[in-house]
Amino acid sequence: MGKPTGFMEIKREKGKERDPLKRLGDWKEYAAPLSDEALSRQGARCMDCGTPFCHMGMDINAFTSGCPIYNLIPEWNDLVYKGRWKEALERLMKTNNFPEFTGRVCPAPCEGSCTLAISDPAVSIKNIERAIIDKGFENGWITPRIPEKRTGKKIAVIGSGPAGLASADQLNQAGHSVTVYERADRAGGLLTYGIPNMKLDKEVVERRVRLLTQEGIDFITNTEVGKDITAEELKEQYDAVILCTGAQKQRDLVLEGREAKGVHFAMDYLTTSTKSLLDSNFKDGQFIDAEGKDVIVIGGGDTGADCVATALRQKCRSVVQFGKHPQLPAERTADNMWPEYPHVFNLEYAYEEAQAKFGDDPREYSIQTKKIVADEQGNLKELHTVQMEKVKGENGQYIFTEIPGTEKVWPAQLVFIAIGFEGPEHPVLSAFGVETKNRRVDAAYGNYKTNVEGVFAAGDARRGQSLIVWAIHEGREVAKQVDSHLMGATVLP
Ligand SMILES: Cc1cc2nc3c(=O)[nH]c(=O)nc-3n(C[C@H](O)[C@H](O)[C@H](O)COP(=O)(O)OP(=O)(O)OC[C@H]3O[C@@H](n4cnc5c(N)ncnc54)[C@H](O)[C@@H]3O)c2cc1C
Ligand code: SF4
């Protein structure tokens, strides 16, 4: 274990973050690593509990608790404490194909269920994970692992997000020939076109895709399956197909004035911004520009926060984010106890930046948009809202009611809709004749088989919008199923 008395002597240190005002001047990652000494101290805080809840990986009350890929956290905490970084890397790579992604942007449900978090701040698990893999790349310990033998079996993976990449990685290591089809011009799914560069530098994603390519995986981008190549062609050419097409069908706002010019889906904003940054450092002008505008983001989640941070970097005049729910409490409440994911107030990176720039947290809570108003040319002019009260109904379910007299008008020239996702897009699923249930691909957790022989599904397409760490988990698990399907048994962990 770490230092036996470490948890009593050493305070938690969070990863360093760049100064909020300074980082608004660029698109580089806002989070910076801790020093080796600080990381060793943090590793020393791990108690190596008899039953380590940090890596149990399960849903409690619909939220994730513990690490879904069962990372061997206490083991690598101890190795980092002792400065045995290369061994820590070996332990980490046993369970996580892409720690450089999770170590940067995972919401770290492991920390919520860390035993130390019952009475003290949790071990800085996510920072340690990131440091181990970054050191692995810096020191040249990560080299292409080219499989010695090939099985002769061919697999098509559709979609290159974390689920597709993890399944491709596992199946390639098992000796199968894997081709990944991606409709976008770059691989990575939401790692590339979703999560902004200041959270996850795209060079980090590209570095991993280059490595997977060197290991033998074939990436075919700019190719939409069901349109540029048919499902029949793929079924003929490959021994198995895995659908990892995500759940990117955005939920729309059904509201008077929705058609006003200046109202956009959040994903259109985030995607075009990243693409323009990568293609030309914004010189091509192919993005939605918030410069000098009053911006309102409708939707209180993380996608909305990423819009806030993007608008700030574009030098918006003001930015507000509307959320339906009340502000979270500062500490856990009685109905959200350890080891559940903690639903507590947090000043995430985007909000910290808005506060530094404008003096205020940009979030407005318990608010509902009633209508959108455009000027005579159809350009967005203002939003009309009302405050809501959230109360428990007779059956225990929550109901929202308007509070009379709280109507307000907000000037805005740009609005981003970030109220969630409906599920996977259907054309590709129909092309394969794959059935859906509750708007997701109908493939049972654990076996990942669809109703079509030889066609599997994993990641957000199967479970709905979720987390990168769950996509990696499902990518690894579906690979085992496909390997068994093709070979009669699996060699995969
Ligand atoms: C803005 C935003 C921010 C997020 N931030 C975080 C975060 O900080 N931390 C976190 O853990 N999670 C985050 N998430 C969630 C996380 O990104 C997803 O859960 C995860 O990427 C899902 O992985 P996936 O591989 O299943 O699908 P995706 O990443 O959605 O990838 C699916 C891929 O399939 C491709 N595709 C679809 N149809 C076809 C077709 N017919 N032919 C070829 N290709 C096709 C798509 O182009 C896409 O590249 C965020 C999500 C969003 C939207
Ligand atoms: S992948 Fe996420 S949950 Fe697992 S150890 Fe890393 S930060 Fe924690």
UniProtKB/TrEMBL annotation:
Record bears the keyword Cell division: no
Taxonomic superkingdom: Bacteria
Main enzyme class: oxidoreductase
GO BP, sorted A to Z: glutamate biosynthetic process
A single MF term (Gene Ontology): iron-sulfur cluster binding
EC number: 1.4.1.13, 1.4.1.14
Domain FAD/NAD(P)-binding: 154-475
Residue ranges crossing the lipid bilayer per the database entry: none
Protein name as annotated: Glutamate synthase (NADPH/NADH) small chain
Annotated pathway: Amino-acid biosynthesis
Keyword terms, alphabetized: Amino-acid biosynthesis, Glutamate biosynthesis, Oxidoreductase
Domain Dihydroprymidine dehydrogenase: 25-140
Pfam families xref list: Fer4_20 (PF14691), Pyr_redox_2 (PF07992)
